[in-house]
Design a protein that fits this description.
Strand content: 15-25%
Low-confidence stretches: none
Number of helices: 17
Helix content: 25-40%
Mean pLDDT: 94
Strand order of the largest sheet: 8-7-16-17-18-15-19
Radius of gyration: 22 Å
CATH architecture of the largest domain: 3-Layer(bba) Sandwich
Number of domains: 3
Distance between the termini: 4 Å
């Protein structure tokens, strides 16, 4: 039995703790905040409830595996409800389109009905290519520890496989090979943002993101997706895991083998193994500031940070006819959005709030999240540059958050969703708030982005260079999003092994 300390009670840390507890280890989870969940949070106010992080679950098999290997099946603990339609999209040319939750054939039919038979055929062909990429990359890139460039060289033994994955091609480039309609190309581009990335630079392998969503469905947990984190925490404690909140870690002690952690209170806790569920940049910069973290800092310096998000939690009076669970309102110029977020193109070196952003709205028709049937709780998110005062992007600048929120509400009105006269209150959360709440650098949602052909190999490995130190969560391999976070925990549990 190893003494294991998990730093951070986000879903990655909690999932690793549950798996390691079930394997017989003595596990303690240390969380700096007052509540668990990390980015998978909940806000309740005046009868309204909001998921403050992810609002849907894809690839639920990852969490079914977690619960089966630690006790009762997932469905015995949580209700999973499929979303159909999964999302409503409004495009700048006027097209409104519901993405069905009825599988890949249903998505192709929906495109054909909206844009004609060619669009349906194009999407079906694209989905077949994405399925091929998924089959080739799932095991070596998602379910196994990354073995550097040797992982890619393993594919190179078969030229047909390397052509399928096309590591030299961007997601946008792949879309242009298959999709003629601008609405379909814009729709595909958005999937790069699921990893905090720019579709012009993210690899074609991200075609697996829409493949997973369409092949395995989009799922919701009545009462809020935050309950997934609570259920994983309950499973962990059932195996003897201790979860301590309001317990910020100041340092991981290693010389060179891991010896334990020191809390900000000054208390030192010994450990044989430390699993870090915090952002990798925070780990290597702040918790391992000495020589032990030098290699990690050097690797992260080569990676491109992910985008952040500007959030509004809207408490609304009245109901919206025909409102879907998810709605996406696209802008006229998507490239301008990515330039503002990443400081590229005309915004080179000058990231700034997007004047005309894509607006994402999560508004579950869930009685548990509103005071009564005559109200709605909306989570509104737009892509945003990270908080970086030294680089000129200061989200704490007086009046900036309020004026930007006002602008977004105006953009929503221009695109057919004017809720300004129904607004009871609005709670704003900026990238600076996200940084303070989760200690993610600049509020980067996913740590490193997937920008660049080598991005997967720049993401911090699950086994660190420090003996006994492992990484889980969205900023480590295999990446961000609920499915990949769960896979990172499974990889780490396998690396550590049974007691």
């Amino acid at each position: 039995m190893a003494r294991v300390i998990v730093v951070g009670a986000g879903l990655g840390g909690l999932s690793a703790a549950a798996r390691l507890g079930a394997l017989g280890h003595q596990v303690t989870v240390l969380e700096q905040a007052e509540q668990i969940g990390g980015k998978l949070g909940l806000l309740r106010r005046e009868g309204f409830g909001f998921d403050t992080g992810p609002s849907l679950l894809t690839l639920p098999a990852v969490y079914r595996d977690l619960f089966l290997k630690t006790g009762q099946p997932l469905e015995d603990v949580l209700a999973l409800v499929p979303l159909d339609p999964a999302c409503h999209y409004r495009f700048p040319g006027g097209l409104e389109w519901d993405m069905p939750g009825s599988g890949p054939a249903g998505v192709s039919r929906a495109w054909a009905e909206a844009l004609g038979p060619r669009a349906g055929q194009d999407w079906a062909a694209f989905h077949r290519r994405a399925a091929g990429i998924w089959d080739l990359t799932r095991d070596p890139f998602l379910e196994s520890p990354l073995d550097g460039m040797r992982t890619l060289l393993g594919l190179a033994r078969n030229p047909a496989d390397i052509r399928t994955v096309a590591p030299w091609l961007s997601l946008r480039g792949l879309g242009r090979q298959y999709l003629q309609a601008p609405e379909q190309r814009m729709f595909l581009d958005r999937y790069a943002t699921y990893t905090g990335s720019d579709p012009r630079r993210a690899p074609a392998a991200l075609a697996t993101v829409p493949f997973v969503e369409h092949a395995f469905g989009s799922w919701y947990v009545p009462g809020g997706l935050w309950q997934l984190g609570a259920a994983v925490a309950d499973r962990a404690t059932s195996h003897g895991v201790k979860i301590l909140t309001s317990s910020p870690v100041e340092q991981v002690i290693a010389s060179p083998q891991v010896e334990g952690v020191r809390l900000e209170s000054g208390e030192t806790l010994p450990a044989d193994v430390v699993v870090s569920g915090v952002e990798a940049a925070h780990l290597y910069r702040d918790l391992l500031p000495g020589a032990e973290g030098k290699g990690g800092r050097r690797a992260l310096a080569k990676a491109s940070p992910s985008l952040s998000g500007f959030v509004m939690l809207l408490a609304l009076r009245g109901r919206t006819p025909g409102l879907r669970h998810h709605t996406v309102l696209f802008p006229t110029d998507y490239d301008a959005e990515f330039d503002h977020v990443f400081g590229t193109g005309k915004q080179a070196g000058k990231p700034s709030p997007v004047p005309d952003p894509t607006v994402y709205i999560s508004a579950p028709d869930d009685p548990a999240l509103r005071p009564d049937d005559d109200h709605e709780a909306w989570f509104v998110l737009v892509n945003a540059p990270r908080h970086a005062p030294d680089a000129g992007m200061d989200w704490d600048a007086p009046g900036l958050a309020e004026s930007y929120a006002h602008k977004i509400l105006g953009r929503m009105a221009e695109r057919g969703l004017d809720v300004r006269d129904r607004l009871l209150w609005n709670e704003i959360r900026t990238p600076a708030d996200l940084e303070r709440n989760t200690r993610s650098t600049g509020g980067a949602i996913y740590g490193s982005s997937s920008n660049g052909a080598r991005s997967a190999f720049l993401r911090p490995a699950n086994r660190s260079p420090v003996p006994g130190l492992f990484l889980v969560g969205g900023s480590s391999h295999p990446g961000g999003g609920l499915p990949l976070v769960g896979l990172s925990a499974a990889i780490v549990a396998d690396l550590i092994g049974p007691a």
